[in-house]
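The instructor's notes for this session suggest beginning with a concrete chain rather than abstract definitions. Hand out the sequence below and ask the class to guess, before any prediction is shown, which regions might be ordered.
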Amino acid sequence: MRITDLLKKQGIALGASPSSKSEAIDLLVGLHEKCGNLKDTAAYREGIIAREGMGTTAIGMEVAIPHAKSEAVKAPALTAITVPNGVDYDSPDGQPCKLIFMIAATTDGDVHLEVLARLMQMLMHEDFTAKLKAAKTPDEFLKIIDDQETKQFPDEAKAVAAEAKSGYRVLAVTACPTGIAHTYMAAEALAKAGEQMGITIKVETNGSGGAKNVLTAEEIANCDGIIIAADKSVETARFDGKPVYSTKVADGIHKPEELINKIINGQAPVFHSDKAAAASSDGGGNESFGRKLYKHLMNGVSHMLPFVVAGGIFIAIAFLIDAAMGAPQDGNFGSATPVAAWFKSIGGVAFGFMLPILAGFIAMSIADRPGLLVGFVGGSLAAVGSTFAAPGGDSTSVSGFLGALLAGFVAGWLMKMLEKLCDHLPRALEGIKPVLIYPLAGLGIVGVMMCAVNPIMGIINTGMTNGVTEMAKNPALIVPLCALLAGMMAIDMGGPFNKAAYVTAAGLLANSPNNATYMIMAAVMIGGMVPPIAIALSTTIFRSRWTDEERKNGPVNFIMGLSFITEGAIPYAAGHPLQVIPSCIVGSAAAGALSALFGCTLMAPHGGIFVLPTIGNPALYFLALAIGSVLGMLMLAILKRPIKK
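After discussion, reveal the predicted structure:
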């Protein structure tokens, strides 16, 4: 184990001026605390004092190496200070100490003895200690140590170099709810930053097609740490005992160097897995409660979207077939002809899984596999409106999307509590917990909970649906609502605001398919189409505002925008946020307002130009899209000045 593996930059204080041995110890202990090396600072300091009580750890030559082996230490580590004026450390040669290393060691093994022996061998070289005392920066201090270790232990240096070539210093996992743009953009940004920094890095992508470039057990064991840049849960039990830093996927795109430095500089907390966290990415230890809520929600949404999109488009095709055949638009519309009935039945089956999938994967994100049952059943009970009086379902108590959200979160947390309670059961029952105790108790919990809340949630759900329907009859209300939701699609282009607007529209479309919800869905899709098209127009017409690379990539956004892939605008928004984001919001909001004003509707929850037949008033819809895109382009031309040659 090399000294530079144990000593971090923030664990070095140069030019310190403690007035006593006690102050020097406090300073070094404080550096350990700052680096996150300790579980209990006070207990570790007591260990250091106890060791000093057995005899001074000053070794002469103006050097001291205090050390302690303690359960208060997370992992073996070093801190160091230089004291130009010296401090009395009870040195056997009577000289004040000007260079002090402090070793923090765990109780398992004898790492402190290995480190102590290594330091003693190196500090016997007076030119080496003189260079350390004269170092001006922590980087210089570390380089002096690294050079001396390489010189004194050449065989070890060769082994370290060989290991570095065969492994990766940093590993990363990227994931976003849809698994399309953000996932791969973050992976590319991290890989590019690692190459520029000279850091070997491997990135696993959890995209819509599954995990690619999967991290191996050997790579995980040999790396310095793992970055998780994800807006949904990813499997993290494999990272047990390794430093893990969790953050949102946008940081992987915008701050790749900062994330890599957190691993290299030892700023990531050590992740410890348990049964309840085995399938969650919340183990980084650095995320807020709100951030964890968002990731649980996005885990449900990301698994739900394929059912909504595919099922919704099949149902929309059924309506188109009946309309083309001249079928009356009554209660049987969409099933009047055999072909239409086939599409509507298949689409309805897929659509029917939406709420169980949403609730199931939210609960699974919270409570791992035991949460899947409670979530699925809770979502299904929300969809049919089960009550104590009518467990088979009551149409007046259908809690819909809101009920499924409640079922996923509350049932997931209740199952997590149940798992902890079951940890106290005899070990002989360990085998039957996942197949009998968890499912049986979970089914009872979610059944009672949903039968109790469905009547209340049903009233709220019905009120919201009726409210939206009434708003659609009044342009003074529906137009601002559509403008708001469309504008939200452009705020973060795939982030929380974007997903909130989209899920709201998709939920309304699924629960209450009518003219009002069709108008809202149309506004949301047009709001997501405007940003990439506005960027593409700007890079084509106002070429002087953009770099050669930005102009070259711009036309691709015509295709992405028309395909309803908002994420195409992200690289431009990341590079010029103050100009791009306001312009896109204004363009999207205007397009959404015009779409509602023109009475445009959309029966499919996704697809862009590929679902053109499902759009009501398509000519006016594309006029609204063109106006919003041009408005965004013009505002961008005003806010973003030409680049000076």
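Then share the key points. The radius of gyration is 31 Å. The chain has a mean pLDDT of 84.
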